[in-house]
Design brief:
single chain; alpha/beta; 3 domains; seven-stranded parallel β-sheet; two-stranded antiparallel ribbon; globular; binds zinc ion
Amino acid sequence: MKKTLKKLIALCLCLAMIASVTLFNASATKKYTDCNGECEHYPAIIVPGLGQSNTWVVDDNGDYILDDEGNKMTSFPAYIQLDKVIGRILAPALLSLVTQKDIGLTEAAADAIRLCFGINTCDENAKTSPNVVTERYPYPASEYQDFEAEEVFGHVPFNLYETEQPFDHMYYFAYNSFGNHIDVVNELYDYIQMVKEQTGHDKVTLIPLSQGASVTSALLDYKPEVQDDIHKVIFVVPAIDGSTIIGDVFNGRISFLNKEYLYNGFLGELGLLDKGTAALIEMLLRILPDEIITSVLEAAVTALVEDVMVTSTGMWALCPSGDYPTAAEKHLSSPDKASIKAQTDKYYQAQLHAHDNIQNLVDNGVQVFCFVEYNIPMINVGETWNSQNADYIIQTDSTSMGAHFANVGETLPDDYVQQNTHCSDPTHNHISPDRVVDASAGLLPDTTFYFEGQRHDLTARNDVILKLALNLIECDDTKDVYSDPRFPQFNTARSSEKLVLLVKEAKTIDPSTLSPEDAAELAAAIAEAEKVIDNTIGIKGEVEASEARVTACLVKAGVMEAPEEGGVSLDIFTKISPWFYEKFGTDGYSELAVIYSMKALQTVVDLVLKLV
Ligand SMILES: [Zn+2]
Ligand SMILES: [Zn+2]
């Protein structure tokens, strides 16, 4: 009997082993390329920036929530539920407007923020809501369906430019920007292993963009063994040491909560509105007393920061190390935040080690490149916005890993001497031609490229940045900033994506359908545009001029409508709003009316008293 049992057990074990081996083989990694890791192209993995991954809202059954047109609803940066927001805000807004008193408007504003952004609130362990799913791409770009190509290349348009890098060697690691940072780091580690298996290559190239650098920094610190998996790292405007926007917001230094700034300059300097519209909105703010406006804004900001942002370790990984200790003390001291704080403390250490970890990569033969943009003031949301050079979203100290900069609009002093903190070659000149940057003080002076006047959020429209990134991805010819005269250390901003698309469109026109003069002009305009696009050293204004010429041809050929001449000008408000501010401070119209009615009444009373 015992023997039979033993035999039975042995048989079961045997079957189990066969089953597991079979299952393992069945799930063995699918290969999408037949190079077997032998080709000269290392697989490239883009680690995108803030909001560059699609995250969708699902119901409790895991089904996508759709909008009226049947499109999936995004959770980034918020799940906008307009009907609910209007339902919550309309009555208090009308009541407050009529009575000029705060009839529940402040609470309603905070609720509206929670309604929309609350989807990104994480739990006490910093885990994201199960109602958010991230769209993932566990295969190379060659396998994308149309909608996936649209999503990925919509964020990073590598498809617009010629490259030798085969698309079966191009990957996009998607993650939730509000997600659990440690989970995201582990996912990136696993993704790298998956790419190695799928391609047969033993190393990959990482391209961390902006926030993606915080994930990469953590990866290097938490899993140092990963450096054996890395051939090259191409940091593009990386948040190596966070962004002062987050540092300011987490430390309660928010510029527009100061009403003197809110009513006089904030919106105009924001960089998102034209000056006329900004001034008009400033005037519209006066429809309510300033106390109500600031109370509403304060409640909205508090709800966003305290109920959403500080629960997200992904957001914490964007807090500069210099701002972290006070911000953590402020928001993460209570026992219910202990688990979140343990995770953010861990990242703080990674942040403090970031330069050492990157240097360690270099010392071990990994090529590390960096792209920095400068001379655009930081967005003016945090109070420290104008204290150092920036690219609108990240301060240059973070992106350049410590290079020395004059502030925006200034230059280094005449007697400034190159610091050579990290460059030991005395023949190198690392001072930018505009005398704003001393690249020698940055960690990687010989492999960091600088783009003057380039705005962070418009990086993907700069074809030179994309072409240089592709050049570094596809081969190892470019070793440093001196390798290729087409890509010097210091270059300028340009936004040429539109021109590239216009040329594509222009080439679809059949010249035989045009008059000989128009056909000649079309050919000349295309030739000029291609020359502009091919020239990787930007000249200010040339892209715009070429765009206008190609556009004129397209309009004449009837394939495009003439661009509309600017509509109604709101410029007049740029005069009226400051006048109001100077004359009446931040008072709302009703307060002004009361003041003037009181003054008038006083005059009448005085007059009557005198007469009596
Ligand atoms: Zn290969
Ligand atoms: Zn050097």
